[in-house]
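Here is an idea for our session: we take a single protein and study its fold together. Which protein we use is up to you, so please pick one and set it down. Once you have written the record down, we can walk along the chain together:
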Amino acid sequence: MAERIIMHIDMDAFFASVEVKDNPGLKGKPVAVAGSNERTVIVSPSYEARAFGVKTGMTKTQAKRLCPAIKFVTANSHKYTTTCSKIIEIIYSFTPDIEVYSIDEFFIDVTNTYHLFGSPEETAAKIKNEIKRQLGLVCTIGISYNKFLAKTASDSNKPDGLLKIGQSNKDKILEPLNVASIWGIGPSTARKLYDMGINTLGDLKKVSCQFLEDRFGAYGMFLYRVARGQGDDEVVTRGREQEAKSIGHSMTFQEDTKDIKTLRKYLLELCLKVSERMRRENFSGKCISLTVRYKSFKTFTKQKTVSGFINTTAQIHSVAAAILESITLTEPVRLLGVSASGLKHDEYNVFLFKEEEKKHNLDTILDKVGSKFGEGAITFASLVNKRQYKRVISPAWRPFGARSY
């Protein structure tokens, strides 16, 4: 059986690169994309900004302190999602086996098609050239025989790189890598490994599987295999994705607030967005969660499980509002988030009570009007004069399914 040829395509500084392409005056300058809200965090710094230490997740103030000349650009979600869809169209001309891992990352399996374009390396080069020719964007591509090594190859060779990891060079590339840089190893696990004197994949490779399982349980087998570059996970094409486990939205306020009327207003908007996505994908949920982040960045989540499955704005808001009312706010709130979990697919809409049917029909009308005329074209009276902010798209966005919004 022929060895699989998997590629990981990673768009370099994606949001920032799209903005620089549309505004050539920004080329060569330190640029960072963030939301319109002054207190939102940076979602994409250019490589020029990264050279000063600017990173994703920093506040604008922190970035400005590191790089006084930095140029902030307000995120344009529509622009990025449209560009992502165009990238997918280009990739489809090389293989139908595509996994959209995030808005700027893609796994592809070219085992059965690369021969049409030359070697695996030649195929990857043609994909890079076609994306640059059509969209003016640069990407890095890693090639290997499994997803882990393909992603490791791209992570190790950014930006504008192309690297293949095979049996002959696998150990040379893997062994020096710090465990904290490895896909699938989080900060907590990395700290535990450091405490054991395990700093690199080379160190990890010297440890027995039994040792790792004794300390990490079933996850120990994952660590054992990672150190050896092993993996057999397949590229998950559309229609085979794991169903969403939760659907949620959050919002960072322009100003910290303890005003309950303000919090209730934004809570309604969040519930409206969550419920719309749930209905679009025919989901209902049993558990509603409310996340609160204080001015001090202390963050906590409270949740409530209901007896039946719900998905209307009124139902979700009723539960979320009850949670909010049960909280004694100890300091001003910076961020509020609502999510629904315990999801199931609804095949039929059956209502025990007339009032439930009325709420469902109202939401359906809101959904249809919003879909045709744009978000907020028709909404609740309390949200009409609310200040609107341009939403920053999540890197986990997909052009289809529950993650599309």
